[in-house]
Structures are given as structure tokens and as C-alpha cells.
């Protein structure tokens, strides 16, 4: 969220400054989007590096030093190079770079102070708002309460799909037992409320810090029919807290992997936010999802 807000501010400011000096929309677009495309990556790694620097604890000193390394050093070099390559003019390069970097120096300090004091609930609330307001994208939201000991896990899960129009809703109960250093086995019972259905499931889960695999065998009881479903989900942590995952489904009466889900998300403990593409028999939907977890020992 911090990176996204900073990028939006940066795009607006750089576009205004560049156009004021060039009066050329193509050059403005090239300089603005090339610069911020590069700095979306630079910003992330710059933040990660500063999270590891513990010697500077004073907020004011820390903000000034971060501003210097990010805006003064990286900003001047990268923006100056891009501006010159696009405009071919040393004069325009200097004017654009110095004006933009000067403005950003002032804004950077305020940005740091705001984010140092912002409540995590507000930041998460903004993310939830984005999820709920994406009318052209499916919204899936889950909440889980779990009691976990060394060898047993008992949980209750609620999921809702859709916001203004809810088209799917379920609750489920989980009971898992530790079966080894990294394995859990157990059962799940899911009750679906819209288009009523009951699903007893058997789960085998392998989990370590950077890799997780869940195999689930489901018995679907719906409208007098009884069907068996097999699904498997593999999750890989790229760089904490970012992960990717793939899940495939096989079901009695359907051919092959009739449904596939591809995930990309961020897991920050109690909160998990993800983008998912689900393809079912050749038809795809995009999903923005949230997953809130509360665990008690």
C-alpha cells in the first residue's frame, strides 16, 4: 500500500513537471512511465534494505537518510538518464530532474511520517475497500478462527463470494492432527448455504516455511447426487511475504483437470491478500480475495 500510494503521487507530479518543460505528450508519457516502472522495483528493495538497518532509530534522522539514498542518489541518476535519452536535451534533462527531485524531497519526509503513524487497520481497510469496489472482478472473502496446539488444530471457516450480490456462502469445520514433522492429516465438513450442499473432506497437508502442498478428497452431497472430487494446491513462498500457488481439480464425471486456479498473493500473518485466476472448462474469471485468520494456542 505504501508503495502504491507513493507511485500514484510520483506519476502525477512527474507528469505535470515533464509536460511543463517539454509541452510534448509522448515525451511526458515515456519519461513518466519508464521512470516509475523502474522505481516500483527500486522502492521495494530500498524499503527492504532499510528494514535491516537498525542503527538509525530516530524517525527524523531515518527519514532524511532514506530520502537521501532514495531520492537524491537513485532519483537524480535514474531520472536524469531517462530524461536525457527521451528528450536529447541537457537543458530539459536538468530542469525536469531538479524540479521533480526537489518536490519529491519535501513530500518524501511527510510520506514517511504519515506511514510511520498510520494504523494497520486503516491500511487494511483501504485494501478491503479496493477489493469490494472492483465491480468487474469477483470478490472472495474468508475468515477463519483456529485453536492450534502442538499436535492438533481445530478451526471454523466462513467464506463469502460477491459483495452487493452474494452468489456463494459456506461455513466449514476442520479437525487436523500432526502426523510427522511437516505433515498434518484430518477431516473437514463444509456446509454451503446458497444452492445447498454438504461436503465431508479428507485432507493431507505438507508444510514448511517456503513450501506447502494440500491434497483434499471431497464427497459432494447435492440434490440427491453423490460425487467425488480430488483437488491439490501447491504454494511456494518467493520472498516473504509474497507467494504464488496453483490448484487443480478432478471430479467424477468430468474429464481431466477441469478446473485450475493460479494465485499470486501477500501473506502478512493474520491477513492474506491475493489475485487469482480461475479457469473452469475453458472459462476464466479474475478474483481479488482476502483471507483473515485468528489463531489461538
The biggest sheet, with number of strands, parallel, antiparallel or mixed sense and barrel status, is:
11 strands, mixed, barrel
Provide the CATH superfamily of the largest domain. Answer: monomeric porin ompg
CATH class of the largest domain: Mainly Beta
Low-confidence residue ranges: none
Helix percent band? 40-55%
Strand content: 35-45%
Order of strands in the sheet with most strands: 1-2-3-4-5-6-7-8-9-10-11
Number of strands: 11
CATH architecture identity of the largest domain: Beta Barrel
Rounded radius of gyration (Å):
24 Å
- CA-based shape: elongated
Q: What number of structural domains do the residues give?
A: 2
- Secondary structure tally, helices: 5
Distance between the termini: 30 Å
CATH topology of the largest domain: Porin
**SSE series:** HHHHHEEEEEEEEEEE
What integer is the average pLDDT? 84
Main structural class: alpha+beta
Can you walk through the features of this model?
With 297 residues, the chain is of the alpha+beta class. The protein has two domains: 2-118, no CATH class; 137-296, Porin. It contains five helices and eleven strands; from the N terminus they run H-H-H-H-H-E-E-E-E-E-E-E-E-E-E-E. The chain has helices at residues 2-22, 25-51, 59-87, 90-117, 120-133; strands at residues 138-148, 152-161, 168-178, 183-192, 197-208, 211-222, 225-239, 242-251, 259-267, 271-280, 283-296. It has an eleven-stranded mixed β-barrel with strand order 1-2-3-4-5-6-7-8-9-10-11. Strand 10 (271-280) and strand 11 (283-296) form a beta hairpin. The longest helix is centred in the N-terminal third of the chain and has 29 residues, at 59-87. The chain starts with a helix and ends with a strand. The mean pLDDT is 84.
